[in-house]
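Summary of Year 1 activities. Much of the first year was spent building the evaluation harness for sequence design. The harness presents a backbone, in tokenized form, and records the residue chosen at every position. We chose the following record to illustrate the format because it has been used consistently in internal testing since the harness was completed.
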């Protein structure tokens, strides 16, 4: 049992690939935490040579190490590859294009110590959108139920916000390396973990999440469709939530529409509407399949109304 007044070691796993400049900003966000305890940061280079110079970003009580994931490619495998190199009672994850705010670890550890039933704890986020537009997303509840998670992926449970007790991986297992391109690997893991304990959120934005670096193109659309279809097969309990099921069916339909598979997309959208008549993702799928609207324009339209397609 960890003493509530202690400052236990926190381990951070940060996968990276092909982002030599952005990863340094992410590392600095970890090193500059105002937490009084020790933090060890394991940078996992996924299918690329390690950069030993990143260890020079270490500071007192902030040790940066670099390792290589030379197993299966992708985020899930890279996160799994980093875990054996950690020793902390708490493990946090961060992506290589996101940046933590200084109080993040301090506030998370304090709440995890105060609420031993929590197995994982997210935080609010600050979304950095196209044109450097900023959208704060604090989340609307300090606790996320299983029903909440089935209904929505919950942006505040982004992989760059999560802190877990080490035993969470013993209960739920590691990240699923079979998930196509590791798309949504954090959400899939949370669907398993929610059976084993309480999921919480600190409803303050404590991480900057870039939403202005990705794009939808043919190859990505195929990945999204295959990954979400895999998710529905692996987690049939998603269908318990009509809105949540419709959300994912609509996402798949949109991805298929961007691939030019109009008939498949329209059928998928109709299935989504059958589960939830106002499914927004299905509506965008119909718009794209029915009019030939460019996927990027559809995404921009979705974001105007405060919705992404994840």
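For this record, the design step produced the sequence shown next.
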């Amino acid at each position: 049992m960890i003493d509530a007044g202690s400052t236990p070691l926190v381990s951070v796993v940060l996968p990276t690939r092909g982002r030599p400049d952005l990863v340094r900003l992410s590392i600095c966000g970890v090193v500059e935490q105002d937490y009084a305890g020790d933090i060890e940061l394991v940078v996992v280079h996924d299918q690329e040579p390690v950069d030993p110079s990143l260890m020079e970003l270490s500071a007192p009580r902030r040790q940066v190490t670099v390792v290589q994931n030379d197993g299966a490619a992708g985020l899930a495998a890279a996160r799994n590859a980093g875990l054996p190199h950690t020793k902390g009672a708490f493990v946090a994850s961060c992506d290589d294009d996101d940046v933590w705010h200084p109080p993040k670890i301090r506030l998370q550890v304090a709440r995890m110590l105060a609420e031993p039933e929590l197995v994982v704890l997210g935080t609010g986020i600050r979304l950095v959108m196209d044109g450097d537009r900023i959208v704060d997303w604090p989340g609307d509840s300090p606790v996320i139920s299983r029903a909440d998670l089935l209904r929505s992926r919950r942006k505040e449970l982004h992989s760059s916000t999560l802190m877990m007790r080490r035993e969470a991986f013993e209960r739920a297992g590691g990240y699923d390396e079979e998930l196509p391109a590791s798309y949504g690997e954090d959400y899939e893991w949370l669907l398993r973990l929610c059976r084993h304990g309480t999921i919480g959120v600190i409803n303050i934005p404590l991480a900057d999440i870039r939403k202005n670096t990705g794009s939808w193109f043919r190859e990505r659309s195929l990945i999204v469709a295959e990954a979400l279809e895999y998710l529905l097969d692996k987690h049939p309990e998603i269908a318990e939530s009509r809105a949540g099921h419709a959300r994912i069916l609509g996402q798949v339909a949109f991805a298929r529409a961007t691939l030019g598979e109009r008939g498949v997309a329209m059928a998928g959208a109709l299935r989504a509407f059958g589960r939830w008549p106002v499914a927004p993702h299905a509506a965008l799928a119909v718009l794209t399949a029915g009019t030939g609207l460019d996927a990027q324009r559809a995404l921009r339209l979705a974001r105007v109304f405060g919705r992404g397609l994840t």
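The first strand starts at residue 10 and ends at 16. Quantitative recovery figures across the full test set are reported in Table 2.
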